[in-house]
Amino acid sequence: MIPEVVGRAVADAHRREWAAVLAATVRVTRDLDLAEECVQDAYAAALEAWVDEVPARPGAWLTTAARHNALDAVRRARTQQAKLHLLVEPPALPAVADDRLRLVFLCCHPALALEAQVALTLRLVCGVATPDVAQAFLVPEPTMAARITRAKKKIATSRIPFRMPAPNALPARLDAVLTVIHLLFTTGHTAPAGPALTRDDLAERALDLARMLRALLPREREVSGLLALLLANHARRTTRTAADGRLLRLEEQDRTAWDSAAIAEADALVVRALRGGDPGRFALQAAIATLHAIAPAYDETDWPQILVLYDELLRRWPSPVVALNRAVAVAMVHGPAAGLAELEALDGDPRLSGYRYLPAAKADLLRRLGRDAEAAAAYERALALTPNESERDFLAGRLAESITSSYIPKS
């Protein structure tokens, strides 16, 4: 039987080190499937080897083990001679200090469709579970699993080399890389499932990648926008739940406990991202997040300006999720009835059929309009779609309040 302390150490190393170990191993194999297999074997070996003593640097131990596995596999395939030269980095490669960011660029290969690039990178490099990747794309899990498998096969059959693209090729991959980092952060900011509202390890990994990306491409305005967006949202992380884990809405959070240094950094980055021409979608999202962050109180939020930014964001990025968020801003500026009308217009969009925030937002506006029975029905729909336990507790509480209110005779 594996001692509990060893199991916890390996699980923690899997959560924290998977991407770095995989990235280092791909540098040896230049084969994604083979590298993944070698890394999995290294983790399996750790369960036995760490029984005597958990190493001081688990990531280094796992990287060494996985690289040894990779070299053994290459030798067994009698391709050692052909593969050894790949161990040496080509001298003309651009400087990307971190293997994780390097691997993100490698997986975001233009031979794959954009969605396949992003999904593959989230799953393999960032360690996001396939069901969570599926939720991020608003598609069923089997659809996403098939998409990831097809992407891996295309890389193998097309013999796409795992080389870092030349500097002039980086911009062509930038949109996918930005999307990967943003979705990774989103998955950590609000965990799709599980007992806790957040997964700070994923959010912090995304922030690290965003900072490295900005160091690599300091003049790209959308990179500044992405980093600002992440900072403005991450600044609130300690106040989003109460001590007992209960979800706290934005208006309930203690703004004095927000990370003021991160908000100031985000604010400065937004100015750079918006300057010099039409802003991109990350710059616009960052501007919205920063307006929320710098408001001295919830009631003093500049909702009219936020609605203007959502109008522009929706024009540039016609996503149903953006339309939903814009509807909330409409409700804050023009009243809940106007916001509800915007949300009802989204009811027929099949991309939102399993998106829990649509019925949740409708429920909130119905509650504010005093239509408690309809609000209760909407809360029930949202609850049925929500696997995160912290969010479920919040929705269940609101559902109970709406049911109670709907039975109270209106005077």
TrEMBL record:
Give the range the annotation lists for the signal sequence: none
Q: Which domain of life is it from?
A: Bacteria
Q: Name one GO molecular function term.
A: DNA-binding transcription factor activity
Span of domain DUF6596 = 173-273
- All copies of domain RNA polymerase sigma-70 region, residue ranges: 21-78
InterPro entries, per this entry? DUF6596 (IPR046531), RNA_pol_sigma70_r2 (IPR007627), RNA_pol_sigma_r2 (IPR013325), RNA_pol_sigma_r3/r4-like (IPR013324)
What biological-process GO terms show up in the record? DNA-templated transcription initiation
Xref: PANTHER family: BLL6612 PROTEIN (PTHR47756:SF2), BLL6612 PROTEIN-RELATED (PTHR47756)
The name on file for this protein is RNA polymerase sigma-70 factor (ECF subfamily)
